[in-house]
Amino acid sequence: MSSETLYLPPDGWPRCRWCAAAAGDEAYLRYHDTEWGFPVGDDKRLFEKLCLEGFQSGLSWRTILNKREGFRAAFAGFDFEQVARFGPADVERLLQDAAIVRHRGKIEAAINNAQRCLELVAEQGSLARYIWRFEPQQQGGQEPEPQSLTESEASKALSKDLKKRGWKFVGPTTMYAFIQSMGLINDHAHGCVIREQTAKARAAFQRPR
User: Which residues are noted in the entry as Zn(2+)-binding (predicted)?
Assistant: First the structure.
């Protein structure tokens, strides 16, 4: 086990090194063990993560995770049809909500992105069908070492296309974090106890077509 890529919590099972940033935080460890890297095909969950990755910009994921329930309450469970109808009064309301990150630009971006999401779904059929078009395809070459990148060709392509469609706070680094967390790649470290589980989940996952 490499101490550079793995973290050994009190339960004795090695995890990805980034879990050490919140040592002793059960919610953070549970997120790593049950969500991060597992493939997602649900439009609301995908939209939620796109929004939360945008809110994370300049902050830690631990901060966002601790406020996730507050975000869900504030943004109608990330039902993008409802969020798309938010107006100036909602922006002012959200700026007073201590349960979320009160950043006007990010709040307005989430509302804008909900409106753009409606357009995308009308065109593509679902957000999931669109997102999974950007899953990197293994061509027989050697995969990058897990967690060795901050962006990729897939994240650059997704970022470029979303920006072209009018989305905001969707830069290539932000989209790489999204691709990692939503299971479009298996970026759990070699030796992490969860890596095999996410590999099995990806193998069984029915890609939206």
Answer: 16, 32, 188, 192
Topology given in CATH for the domain delimited by 39-130+149-204: Endonuclease III; domain 1 (1.10.340)
Give the Cα separation of 7 and 14 in Å (integer): 6
**Residue 175: pLDDT band with limits 50, 70, 90:** very high
N-to-C CA span, the chain? 39
**Which pLDDT belongs to residue 139?**
57
Q: Which residues fall in the annotated binding site?
A: 16, 32, 188, 192
Domain boundaries, the chain: 39-130+149-204
Half-sphere exposure of 69 (CA within 13 A, CB side): 2
Q: Which residues pair with 7 in a beta bridge?
A: 15
Q: Which residues are annotated as a binding site for Zn(2+)?
A: 16, 32, 188, 192
* Element containing residue 7 per DSSP (H, E): strand 6-7
CB burial of residue 105 (10 Å; 0-12, 13-18, 19+): exposed
